[in-house]
């Protein structure tokens, strides 16, 4: 594993190992030159391939012909930030075990281990690669949508960015509530060459897999959102029997009226704005009338999923979902005034209904009285018939 340059007399050692450490002496005539070779070996757990939230361990070993020095080790992340690992206890100076923090997908890249010693003088940089296969989405992303709108849910993977050459698989699950049974919507696999394939698994939810989408992305399209499409959509990937996931929570808004239809003159209507899950403390629902006043505004209380407003006149109303003074989504509801004849029909129907109820009540009372009289008459006739029978019995005995 070594070779000598005949011109410069340089010795070249290939595939350096810890056992190669020692003193190398060059004799040339009456001249003798000695060089001490100090060898370091840096290894990283799992061969430097991680999933998010995993904790790597670095092992730094040294060998020398002289007494081994006490090393000062500094780590720099791929962003050139100093990382302060936990140094696991070890009785000898030959091995240093460093436990790092939990990794995120953004930690991928080339790291640097700086080794320093004053005696002997050592100032050495050792680079190593850290690859974290994961999602570029936040840990729990919230997405808001209105009923009948189109929504695209997207998970961005970084396997192309970090040149991840190993194959892995994954799946997309959905559940409407936290304690509900998860339903698998699709599964996917990525080959060692980076080719991506998806397969639709469930028809419980109407969704599409977009044909054209960004590279290294898992996407589903809900072409017409329903209120019960809300819930948690979890994208999970698996590599070497290890798993990582990213969730998107879909919150859906709907508006309705009670009663529905045009508003008759003099009548009232209740407008209802509702979301599919409780809102965080920094968010609320708000009804407001277009070109209205402060008196027309209605806000939901903290963590409420519904807000109502009573309406007695025609107009356009908007319901907003507001988070930190930022409008996330809005839905409008136009309240239309019913034509005049409808109002008269409603009034006439109300009067007619009242008259009908009064007539039915009178009929019921009259029928009840007649029935009671018939019952009493039948009772008296039965008693008279009984008396006659008793009298005939007595005459026969005489």
Overview of the molecule:
- The protein has 398 residues and is mainly beta.
- It folds into 3 domains: 40-132, Immunoglobulins (Immunoglobulin-like); 141-252, Immunoglobulins (Immunoglobulin-like, Sandwich); 259-335, Immunoglobulins (Immunoglobulin-like).
- It is 15% helix and 44% strand.
- It is built from 1 helix and 27 strands.
- Strands 14, 16, 17, 18, 20, 21, 22 and 25 form an 8-stranded mixed β-sheet that branches. Strands 6-13-12-8-9 form a 5-stranded mixed β-sheet, with no helix packed on it. A 4-stranded antiparallel β-sheet has the order 5-7-11-10, with no helix packed on it.
- A hairpin with a 2-residue loop joins β20 and β21 (242-258).
- It is elongated.
- Mean pLDDT is 87; it is low at 341-346 and 393-398.
* CATH-defined architecture of the largest domain: Sandwich
User: Would you tell me which CATH topology of the largest domain applies?
Assistant: Immunoglobulin-like
Q: Mean pLDDT, rounded to whole units?
A: 87
Strand content: 35-45%
Instruction: Tell how many strands the DSSP assignment holds.
Output: 27
Round the Cα radius of gyration to an integer and report it.
42 Å
User: Alpha-carbon distance between the termini?
Assistant: 149 Å
Q: Spans with pLDDT under 50 lasting ≥5 residues?
A: 341-346, 393-398
> What is the CATH first-level class name of the largest domain?
Mainly Beta
Please, what is the CATH homologous superfamily of the largest domain? Immunoglobulins
Q: Specify the structural class.
A: mainly beta
Q: Main beta sheet: strand number and arrangement?
A: 8 strands, mixed
């Amino acid at each position: 594993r070594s070779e000598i340059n005949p011109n410069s007399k340089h010795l070249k050692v290939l595939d350096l190992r810890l056992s190669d450490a020692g003193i190398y002496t060059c004799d040339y005539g009456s001249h003798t030159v000695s060089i001490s070779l100090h060898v370091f070996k840096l290894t990283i757990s799992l061969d430097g391939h991680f999933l998010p939230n995993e904790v790597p361990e670095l092992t730094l070993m040294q060998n020398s012909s002289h007494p081994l020095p006490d090393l000062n080790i500094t780590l720099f992340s791929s962003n050139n930030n100093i990382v302060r690992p936990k140094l696991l206890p070890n009785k000898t100076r030959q091995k240093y075990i460093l436990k790092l923090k939990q990794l995120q997908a953004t930690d991928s890249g080339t790291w640097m281990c700086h080794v320093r010693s004053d005696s002997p003088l050592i100032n050495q940089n050792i680079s190593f690669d850290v690859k974290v296969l994961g999602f570029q989405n936040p840990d729990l992303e919230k997405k808001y949508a209105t009923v009948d709108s189109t929504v695209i849910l997207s998970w961005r993977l970084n396997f192309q960015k970090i040149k991840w050459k190993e194959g892995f698989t994954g799946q997309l699950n959905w559940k409407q509530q936290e304690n509900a049974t998860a339903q698998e919507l699709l599964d996917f696999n990525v080959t060692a060459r980076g080719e991506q394939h998806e397969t639709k698994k469930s028809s419980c939810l109407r969704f599409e897999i977009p044909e054209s989408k960004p590279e290294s992305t898992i996407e589903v399209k809900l072409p017409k959102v329903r209120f019960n499409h809300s819930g948690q959509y979890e994208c999970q990937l698996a590599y070497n029997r290890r798993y990582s996931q990213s969730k998107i929570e879909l919150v859906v808004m709907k508006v309705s009226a009670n009663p529905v239809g045009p508003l008759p003159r003099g009548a009232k209507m209740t407008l209802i704005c509702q979301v599919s899950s409780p809102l965080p403390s920094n968010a609320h629902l708000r009804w407001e009338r277009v070109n209205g006043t402060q008196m027309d505004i209605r806000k939901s209380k903290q963590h409420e999923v519904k807000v109502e407003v009573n309406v007695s006149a025609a107009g356009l109303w908007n319901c907003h979902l507001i988070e930190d003074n930022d409008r996330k989504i809005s839905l409008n509801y136009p309240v239309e005034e019913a034509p005049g004849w409808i109002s008269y029909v409603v009034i006439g129907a109300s009067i007619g209904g009242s008259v009908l109820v009064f007539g039915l009540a009178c009929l019921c009372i009259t029928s009840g009285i007649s029935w009671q009289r018939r019952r009493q008459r039948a009772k008296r006739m039965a008693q008279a018939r009984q008396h006659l029978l008793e009298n005939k019995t007595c005459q026969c005995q005489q």
